[in-house]
Design a protein that fits this description.
metal-binding, Ssirtuin_cat_dom, globular, SIR2/SIRT2 'Small Domain', single chain, alpha/beta, zinc, 2 domains, Rossmann fold, cytoplasm, EC 2.3.1.286, 3-stranded antiparallel beta sheet
């Protein structure tokens, strides 16, 4: 039974109407990374950061999973081995599309985190600066998002699975953000077949064995059909 690891980035959710960060009209065009996606930015202007993620939470809640999300859930359900989806996305479209074996390495919009005790709880649609932690009572709630300079979640499990996978696919990723950009090299060292599925080749595209270019709803669905056939 083969093990498949799939890394997904903003490109898989773009057809659901969630802007990618690097698009000219995208989120980073309106905000500096330093202001909304770093611990320093949160310390400097917590309201700006909380409002930024409140807006993103509303956008994600209004979006619907697309055919690519559903295809990966079908792969997990019908493949006779292990399928692990590791997403850089903070929306919940994979879950709503049916994926269950899933790691949100960069956190999740629908989760809140206590900066004092590390307790997590379901985030309200609108968070406020100074929200109290339901566990310890500290007024230290923050979005449960991995900001630049922080360690992504479940890296031990990710690298353990990459080290024994038979197939690695990266879908809709830029290849600009580490450690995720290094996953293809890790999988290749394990002898895995590697494929990039994207609108265009990423910054690490030359490291993949093959590439499939086009909209995720078409390319991912076709790739899953081939694997399951």
């Amino acid at each position: 039974m083969s093990t498949i690891v799939i890394l997904t980035g903003a490109g898989i959710s773009a057809e659901s109407g969630i802007e990618t960060f690097r698009a000219e009209t995208g989120l980073w065009a309106q905000h500096r990374v330093e202001d909304v996606a770093t611990p320093e930015g949160f310390a400097k202007d917590p309201k700006l950061v909380v409002d930024f993620y409140n807006a993103r939470r509303a956008t994600a809640a209004a979006a619907q999973p697309n055919a690519a999300h559903r295809a990966l859930a079908r792969l997990e359900a019908e493949h006779d081995g292990e399928v692990l989806v590791v997403t850089q996305n903070v929306d919940d479209l994979h879950e709503r599309g049916g994926s269950q074996n899933l790691i949100h390495m960069h956190g999740a919009l629908n989760s809140a985190l206590c900066a004092a005790c590390d307790h997590r709880w379901p985030a309200p649609m609108t968070m406020a600066v100074g929200d109290a932690c339901p566990s310890c009572g500290a007024a230290a709630a923050r979005p449960d998002i991995v900001w630049f300079g922080e360690m992504p979640y479940q890296m031990d499990r990710i690298f353990e699975t990459l080290g024994r996978c038979d197939v690695f696919a990266a879908i809709g990723t830029s290849g600009n953000v580490y450690p995720a950009a290094g996953f293809v090299a890790e999988a290749a060292r394990a002898g895995a077949e590697t494929v990039e599925i994207n609108l265009e080749r990423s910054a690490v595209g030359s490291q993949f064995d093959s590439a499939r270019l086009g909209p995720a709803t078409q390319t991912v669905t076709a790739w899953v059909d081939e694997i399951l056939s």
